[in-house]
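Action item from last week, closing it out:
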Amino acid sequence: METVVVSVHCLTYNHEKFIAEAIESFLMQKTNFKFEILIHDDASTDRTPEIIKEYELKYPGLIKPIFQTENQYSKRKSFNTLNLNNLIRAKGKYIAVCEGDDYWIDPYKLQKQVDMMEKNPNCSLCVHGGYIVTAAEKKVLLKNRPSKKDKVFTVDEVIEGGGGLFLTNSMVFRKNYGLETPEFLEKSPVGDYPYVIHFSLLGEVCYIDELMSAYRLGHSGSWTATEFNTIEIKKRHYSEIEKMLDNLNVYTDSQYKDVINRTKIKTQISFLLEQRNYYEIKKGIYKEYYLALSFKRKLIIFMDQFSPFLSRILRVVKRRVSVWTSI
């Protein structure tokens, strides 16, 4: 019997408008190895389970779903728990991640990433570039391209890069590493960011400079729409990031203390900007970091502060130009 090399790890909840496109993007993968598709539906209340079952009947043995009867995320508020529910049954050496509202656009994505990891046994996580698009129209808002060439990201770069450094649907990692749960990760409720840090501590984070996936932004079922939509919720989110970084500092015996402290200050600045507290970021411990910002970033902050209407118009224009130049 042929060995499964990659397990596609797909978490989904109320993604009836998108789940078929996600599954089709898995099915279009051209590989010289066997893969399986593990879908974990977290008690969706729309037609998501029905759509998954249709694909399961059409591709028996390839698509392997779990259908929860009670929403697990709302019970535990932990991405880690949801991940382990799916990962523990994976047969693959590698895990490829894509949530049910996102999709892949390159049919050779898995092959390229597995080739990279097979050539480099020290590679614990392989990522790539991708597009951030509107939910319904799939218009390109921007490109997620953390480097203009292939590179290996250091632990410091991963910590300071934050949760948005890599797209979730670009990640392929070694299954045995994904099953490990160090204390800073186990206690953390904040998504993929601590996972990427975890993988960077275990080996090399290898980046392929190709745009091979699309991340949907702004639909009603997305995490940002449901979990990140008020100042109080945002405050809690940033507080959780800081707590995770403190736990990481303890876990690593302060080996990355300097970059962790820098990142915490940048996190605090991000929250001040969310509150439109532009004066505070130019004072005290934040002043040094503000002065070190690029002219472009300072100009954006200045315009947000003194001319928010013009700032919004320029952002719309930039997005339309991005769409035009990506065609």
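Closing note: The beta strands are 4-12, 34-41, 63-67, 94-97, 103-104, 123-134, 140-144, 151-153, 172-174, 204-217.
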